[in-house]
Every structure is written in structure tokens, then in C-alpha cells.
Amino acid sequence: MTSTFRTPEGGRIDRATTVEFTFDGQTLTGHPGDTLASALLANGRHQVATSIKFGRPRGIAAAWAEDPGGLVQIEEPFPEPMLLATTVELHDGLAAHGLPGQGRLADVPDSARYDAVHHHVDVLVVGAGPSGLAAALTAARAGARVALVDEQSEAGGSLLSGTERLDDAPALQWVAAAVAELAGHPEVLHLQRTTAFGSYDDGFVLALERRTDHLGAAAPKHVSRQRVWRIRARSIVVATGAHERPVVFADNDRPGTMLAGAARTFLHRYGVLPGREAVVFTTNDSAYDAALDLHRAGVHVQAVVDARPEGSPRREECEHAGIRVLSGAVVTGTQGVERVTHALVAPFADGEVGASSAIACDLLLVSGGWNPAVHLFSQARGRLRYDAALGAFLPGEQLDGLTVAGSAAGVFDLAGCLADGQRGARAALGALAVPPAEEDRLPTAPEPVVPTAPLVLWRVPDTSGADGSTSFVDLQRDATVADIARAVGAGLRSIEHVKRYTTIGTAHDQGKTSGVLTSGITAELLGIPVQDTGTTTFRPPYTPVAFAALAGRDRGRLFDPERVTALHEWHVAAGAVFEDVGQWKRPRHYPRPGEDMEAAVLRECAAARTGVGILDGSTLGKIDVQGPDAAVLLDRLYTNLMSSLKVGSVRYGVMCGVDGMVIDDGTVLRLAEDRFLVLTTTGGAAKILDWMEEWVQTEWPDLRVHCTSVTEQWCTFPVVGPRSRDVIGAVFPQVDVSNEAFPFMTWRDTTLDGVPVRLARISFSGELAFEVYVNPWYAVAVWQRLLDAGRPYGITPYGTETMHVLRAEKGYPIIGQDTDGTVTPHDLGMAWAVSKKKPDFVGKRSFSRPANQDPLRKQLVGLLPVDRRTVLPEGSQIVEFRTDGQLPPPPVPMLGHVTSSYRSAELARPFALALVKGGRERIGETVHVPVNGTLVPVEVTGSVLVDPEGARRDG
Amino acid sequence: MAELLRTHPLEGWRTAFERLPDTVRIAVEPFVAMVDVRLGTVGAEASAALGVDLPTAPNTWVPAGTGRAVWLGPDEWLLSSTTETPEELEARVRAAVVGLGGSATDVSAQRIGLRLTGARVRDVLAKGCSIDLHPRVFGRGSSAQTALGQAGVVLLALSDAADDVLVLVRSSFAGYLADWLLDAALEFTSTPND
Amino acid sequence: MQLIACPWCGPREEVEFHYGGQAHVPYPESPAELSDEEWAHYVFFRDNPKGRFAERWNHSAGCRRWFNAIRDTATYRFESVYRLDEPKPVTP
């Protein structure tokens, strides 16, 4: 395969190396340094895809991210949808095909790595063209911490696409020297292939670095493929250049139609001739460079069509080269099928288009002027102003910490861009009070030729019979002038509305070429100035960013931290099945061979009710509350009295929000007159510490009390069941574990081989139980001692599922499962836990609000399915029949819902807890729960179903 | 009965840590006694009682006997000791500060320490820490309470070149953070495993 | 990612902080003496201005201290932060 459109020499490609790639199944070759687009053009291929709505042939129309035409699907090395051929660097083995709009996500996991890095700088320079390089040099020379990011594979920006000279040498020599100088500054981070895609608050810029994409299959696996740089800059210089703007005319989407500047890029950077016979259509002087450069490279330039009646002073240059220049003329349309064959050219004066004649060509270059790439400035909430002479929107104000320089600010000559870059960096340094270096020379650029004023022309006026329905504004969305006319005709005036009505600017390229055109054409159709139309809001990302890159390393096992207790390895070895409780991994049950969860839980429950079980309860939140006013604080935060608790004793307590709703519950151990250990639910640990701190810091700073998290300072093992006393007595022989010496709701300190251990008579199951507290350093050893001592009694480790069954059988609610933020202690049947003596505590005043006195409030009750078989799904609604035995007509009133539901070994039947309207008054009634399409009758009972007398807690 | 054995939550990571290159060394710190000290006013009396001038500049630490005193808040410090047991340290500090309206709580097992050394330490931390760790702003004696990845940490700068950093992390997050650090260091290993 | 200046730790990313709602809404001296309506105002009602707003923030991932801030709800800009024992800054 010969690349017939490759120039014999020149360009930034490595001609010594040939790489093979496939496109649409065809094997082609190119060179390192090519993009997929330049390699396709070198092979004479312009059409890349067909369009999303009309199926029209579409080709490469620009040379970088602004291209609205060349959408491809990558298949190898890894499937990736909707990339632009112009931004895909060529490598060996690349396989791609053209895409009519939407692509296909990979159906296999992406094995590439992605990561993120935080970086802090004094000055961030975005863009390594002439302005950006000048800015970075100035900042670096001043000793500042600098980052220079640029989206291309190498620095140089527009200099890569031309033949400019600096200091009487090719400009790229200066670029190389600048890059080398920057590399010598230790505080400079210079990143190519890195797109700054969003600017946010306080100098925060996100940039995507494509680190190994260009290496294809050779990419090292241990290095991230793409990296999101999270750059925090004290000052930012935006030197992002400008995008060339097309002019809209009929059939302007035909492959072979291309921005004039892009043709120069393909020629100079990639050594590719984008055609043999060219017509150049322009409204400004810049396209003359394309015409002359292509001519010199051997392209037959049929004509330069300049819409301006007076043309350009560069006309002579062209005519000298034998290029015909038609001033006061426009291209009105194209001919051809999959590739342009003719441009239709007509005289143009005073807004009137004359009769067209066809000029044969296979390349139609277009330039309607330049749009500064103001995206990052605009994202940072910078206001834009319309420059009528340029027909472009420019930065319209000075932002703190962000300066726009060079073409992005509307400076279009090389000398001006260099000087503006330096100015931008000096402004940035000035704001940071960093003086510039004494030696900070700019290269000498040729005197700029003063250009003649461009003509602002958004679209070629319709010729007779044309309705704008093939005059494409947004090629990716197949949206035309006719669509804008329809939007305006429908009464839309705001450019934001026009955008959404026509979908212009909502595709993959986000309107880089179509946005300003839409503003101009809309203004024209409405007969208002363009500045009144304005632009749509620029939002990140500037170019598409893969979700994988945004996710970075936060996936797989690093997706969400897994918190584990000191016994985790033991649980794993014991075959535990884990459940997620917040970020904690907790054993849910420990199935024996052949057991499912139901069997395992019934066995574990039976052990705890008849023998002895042991639970790893270390995830419970624990807070050390210390200070002379510790009891005062707890009295104010718990609904019940804590100050009367004796040292050595334990009390259960409930906490409410100011609205009177339960937020947490747990036990409190009084360690000393001035010290308590507060236990919270696993999920409430951080929340309750924050809650306490909030009250202490913001409301009661006078209280002499301090709260400290000790959640991970203590492992907690409840040893539960009628034989628990035997086990604890065996492990701690020095402790008198009799009920008289060690009564319920007390605690004792002891030691085990010199290691401090705290024991507490607390029960969350109704059974005789001891909680063992120990420093996690010794957790495994102590747990093992307990297991060894319990072996004669068949001690059975149990998980959270069994814990739930045991507590639910006793009617103990789980805050957050049986409650939902609308439940008071009274609703839970815990009026006994609400002090009547205390003048106030958080939540008290709300209890007397009328809504909280309503007898029809939902209350916690038990439910027993009458069939003794059905396990009611948690969350099920509860309904009741009318007296006539029928359901009320829809909407059927809901009485409440099931909050907890289990199978009980003790009751030998399933049971549930539920919140039911006026539930306590309904005890004994039968209500119904819809389960799988049938209504299951259930009996309403009290919430305590096992041992309601509490006879078992003392063994 | 045999003496109760201690187990470290990162026992299972030691081998992986040992395989890391010199540019990113991770060492699991031995268990040390630590107390959380709360004290409203720091003065000569407190210094005398504690034997250390508690640092009052936010985000700093100072050596304190065999351990360190780390600023955690305007009235909160983390005090460590390598020569006392947790109980001894809590008892000593509590005795010193209770009379001054302060408190002291044994938090020895709340956090574990990972010491990161090597030229790439800053690069590894920068993958998940949003604060500036440049030596110009995070030299020896600096500390920071912040997030590393998705774990809350206390970072202590032990050198002036940001190449020696102690990371304190809640014990239950230790495994997550160890995995996170190994993953972050992967690109600096000369012989990657995968 | 905005920066919020903790009065103790200095500027940190906003994700290190928790919002605490309107500042200077003290817990009533004697809740029992309030009417239902007055109590409901304390529990449920807060100002919602466009523009300057005095708010409570907590540096939850750092020093865990609460502080107050004047923030413009239209621009998100923090105009000032101040400690709980400092008076609300006088704004023009």
C-alpha cells in the first residue's frame, strides 16, 4: 500500500518507520507522528463515516479536536467509541472504523490503569504554542513553580502547522530550545498530550494526560494509560489559541471540504496533501497562506474565492504564483457524491449572490475567520464580548488569577502572540508579587503584515430555490440553517433555547465550529446584533473525557474503602459470609458445609438461646466523654438521665434530634465520676461524635467536657447465651461472675495475662450475656481464649443476621432500619427511656407538638404471619380489609410497612417488626401484607415476642 | 497459659512492602502508646506537667521525649511514647492535665503508622492528597490532617525534602490504605507484577 | 473544587468540610416556655437569602472545628471566615 498523498519530504512524522493499521477492515500504513486522520488522508481517504441522521458521507474537516466530521470507533487495542480520527495518534496495530454517530462501549473490562495526581503551582500555562511557551519561559525564569500543559503530542502549537521563522531560523528551532530550557528548571512540569478540559473555582484546573494511548499494544501495563491532573494554580495563563471558523453554504459537508488552516497542518506537520485540485474560499487573509503553501507543495490551486469585494493585498502573491483570485465571490455549494468534485462559485456583492459556475476540485478549503478558544476563560465565569471587526467573541473582562494571552485573546500575529504570552505571565507573576527575571528575552519575529479587515460572513445567502436544508451548521448533529430558521420561526429568541431546539453544539465536539456560527445566523434571522445573541454557556469538559479516567484508581477493591476489624482474617478463615454495614465488612453468618444462610442462622440462633454464642461487635461506635461536665452533656443529649448512673454501671439511652426524632441509641458505661464510655450504633459512630462536638463547640462551649472517638481503640465481643457465664468465668477466674457480684448492666475491669480487659453485662438478645472489651492488638488472642474456653459448651460464632434475629425477637429496634427519621422514642414504645425529671434535653420540646401527640402515629409492633410460613419481605406495605372483607377502592390506604423480618428458631415461625399507624391499639387485629401478588394475613402483636418477662437475662 | 500475642492489622502486607524499590519504601511502624490530649489553655504549667511544649501552630508536630506531640486542633494534640504502655501514658498525661481542665484518652490502637521514605514519596502521596506537599511548604515539623485516597490520615513530615513522611491512619482503614499505597507505587517499581 | 479557609488549618478543598446551616441561631434558653409556633420556627425555619449569608461550617476531615463564614449564596464566594468566639464581621 503506498501512501499516494504523502509529500516526498517534510513534516514531523518518522518516515523511517512504517506502522500498519486497519480502517474499515482495510490494511493501510502510516508513520509514527501521524494521526489516524493524517494517515487516512495520506492514503487518499477523505470520507470517514456517514452522518447520524441523514446518512450523508462525512470526512475530515479539521485537523484536531474541532473536527465535526471524522468520528471513529476504535476496536484495537481496546474498544473505544466516538473518538475523532484527528486526535487519535497512529500506532502499529490500530484498528478503527468510521462511525455514523453513536459508537459501542467495550463489553469486556478495561484492563488499563487510570489515575489522578494533585499538583500545585504558582503559574499554570495552558497551551504550548508561541504565547504559551513565552509565558512559561517568563514564569520559569522568575523561579516560579510552573506547569505547562498542551494537548498536542509535541509543543509548538500553530508553529507546527506553518513555516514561520524566529530569530532568522525555523520557528521550531526556538520551540525546541524553549522546551529544553523549561526542562532545565526543576520546578517546571511540562506535559504534552495533556488537555486542560475544565477550569473551576480558586485556580483549579483539571487536565487529562494521554500517557500511553499512542503506544498501542506496547503500552506498559503498570503505568496509567490516562491521568487526570488536578492542578491548583495561584495564577493561570490561558494560551489556547483559536479555532478556525467555516462559512456555511449548501452541501458544505461533502468530504473534501476542510478548514484552510487544517490543510496547512496536514501539509506541514504530517507531510500530507489533502488533495490535488483545490479551491480556497475565504473571508480573510489567513487562507492565502494555505493556498500558497499547497501550491508550492504541488497542489493545483484552481482559485482563491475571496468574499471581500476588495480582496486582499496578498492577491498579487497568488497571481504571481499563477493562482486565480476571485474577489467579491463566494462558494454557494458543492457537487460530488462521496467526495467533492466541484465547487459552485458565484459573484457576491452587497449581500446579493449572482449566478454560480462550477470549478472542478477535490479539495475545498474554507476560512470564515477565527474564534479564540475562550472555553477555559468562560468556564471560569469570564464574560465574553463580541468583536464586530473579527466576528468573534473575546474575553471581555479581567479575571482574578486568570489571564488570556495570544490568539485566545484575539492576537493573531506571531510577534504579538509572543509578547502577549510574556505579558500574561508577567501579570500572573505580578499578582503573586514575584519579580520577573532580568534576562527574559523574546525571540525576534518578522514584522507582521497588517492584514486587511476580514469580512464577517456566517453563511452564504441562499441562492434561488435553496432553503438551507443542506447548509450544515453542526455536521455532527446534522443540523442546518433550516433548523435554526425553524427554531426562530417557532418563536425562540435565546441562543440557549435555539441550541436545545436544534441540538446544535450538543454533540461530541460541543460546537467548537458551530457555536459562534449559530449565534451569528440566529442574530441574522432575528435581525438583532450578534452581541445581543451572545454565546451558549461554555461548560467542562472542553473535549470528551472517559469515565474510566475520571474514576481513576477508585475502582475494584479501591472503589470504596473496606473497613475491617482486628479479627477479619479469623472471620475469613472461618468461612464467614460478609455483609456491608456502611464501609465495614461484617460477618453475616458462618455457614457450615452444606448450609445455606437460613440453616446457618437457625443454628447460630439456637446456640445463643440454648448454649453460648460469640459475636464480633467491634464495629460499634465508641466515644470517650471526659470532664467535670461529662454527665451534664449526656443529660442534655440523651432522652433519659445519665447523671444518676453509678460508676461501674451501664445504662441504655436514646438520642433525638431537636425535632424529637430518634437519631441513635446505645449503652453508656460510667467509667468514673468525670468519664463515660458512650456506645453508638455502627453506622452512627462518626455522626454521633460530630453531633456531640457540634453541641459542645457551638452551643455549650462553657461545658468542661471533651469527646474522643475510641471506636478502634476497643474490640468488643458479646458472649451470649445461658452458658456465657461458664465461659467468662473460665477465662477470667479472678472475676466473680455470679449475678449477685456482677449484676446486669454493670461492668468490671480485669486483666488477662496482664492485658487490661473490660467486661460488661449488656444484652442485645435478652439472654445472659457478657461483652468483652480489649485493645485490638490482643483481639485475636483473646477471641481465641474465649473460643477455647467455650468449646465444651459448643460456643458458636454468629454473625449479624443472627444478631438481628435475636434482637428482633426481643423487639429491640435498629435505628436506621426500624426507624427512618420520623420516629420518636414513644413511637418505639420507649416512653420508659424518656426522662420526665429533666427540665430539658435535645428533642424534648418537640414531643409535645400536636403532630407528635397524634394517636395514629406509626408505632413499632410485631407481626406474625398467620400461615406460620411466609417471611414477609422487609419494606412490604401493610393494608387492611373493610368490614365487608373487601379491600378499599384504590388508592388503598397504607397502614405502614415491615421494617425487620426473620425466621425464628425460638418461635419456630417467621415474624416481623413493623411501623403501623396506631399500631399498639391494633394488637390482636389481623391486617394484610401483599407478598408476590397475594395478601398474606398477619396478626399484630406486641414487639417483644421472646421472653417478654425478661427472665433470661440473668441466666 | 501462654502470653497473649499481639497481631498487627498489616501483618499480611509486609512481604509486599518489602518488595518496593528504594524510591518508595513503606515500613509498618511498631505499635506505640498514643493519647489524645485535650487542653483549653497551653502554658508553662501544662508544659511543666507534661514535659513538652505542646505546639500551638496549626499543622505542626514536635518531638516529645521518645515520641511526638502532634497538633490536631486548637485544644487537641496527639501525644505518643515509645517507652510507656498505653495505660501508663494515659495515666501520666491524664494526671498532668485533669487539674488544668484537660482530658486524656488512650487511642494507641485507633491509628497505625506507616513510614514512607524515598525520592518518590511525594509523587505517591500526590495521587490522593489534595494539599501541597512541596518541601517549601511541608518541611520537617509540618503535619496535616486530611484525606489520602478515601481514608482520613494524619501526615507528619519527618524530613525537609518530603522524602520521609509518617502516615497515621485509622486501624480499620489500614488495609485499604496499604492496598492504595501499593497500587499508587506500582508505576515506580522496576519489575511490576502485572 | 472550591477552597474553604479553615480559620485554623488554612485553605483546604471543600470536600474536607461539612455544611452546618445558618449561623447565629442559638438553642432557645427555655424551650418549654415557647409556643409550638415559636419552637417550630427554631426547629424548621431558616433564612434563605440571595447574597450574603452567615453560615456554620465544620472542618470535618481536618481539625474537626466548627467555624462561621459569610458566603455569598449567588456566587458561592466566601467573603470571610471567623471563629465561633469572634463576632460576626460587619459587612457594608
UniProtKB/TrEMBL annotation, chain A:
The keyword Transport does not apply. It holds the Pfam family Pyr_redox_2. Residues 470-553 form the SoxA A3 domain. Its cofactor is NAD(+). It catalyses: sarcosine + (6S)-5,6,7,8-tetrahydrofolate + O2 = (6R)-5,10-methylene-5,6,7,8-tetrahydrofolate + glycine + H2O2. InterPro entries: 2Fe-2S-bd_N, FAD/NAD-bd_sf, FAD/NAD-binding_dom, GcvT/YgfZ/DmdA, GcvT/YgfZ_C, GcvT_C, GCVT_N, Sarcosine_oxidase_asu. Its main location: cytoplasm. Binds 1 NAD(+) per subunit. Residues 858-947 form the Aminomethyltransferase C-terminal domain. It is an enzyme of class 1 (oxidoreductase). Its EC number is 1.5.3.24. GO terms for biological process: tetrahydrofolate metabolic process. This is Sarcosine oxidase subunit alpha. It comes from Geodermatophilus siccatus. The lineage of its organism: Bacteria, Bacillati, Actinomycetota, Actinomycetes, Geodermatophilales.
UniProtKB/TrEMBL annotation, chain B:
It comes from the Bacteria. SUPFAM superfamilies: Folate-binding domain. This is Sarcosine oxidase subunit gamma.
From TrEMBL, chain C:
One of its GO terms (molecular function) is sarcosine oxidase activity. One of its GO terms (biological process) is tetrahydrofolate metabolic process. This is Sarcosine oxidase subunit delta. It comes from Geodermatophilus siccatus.
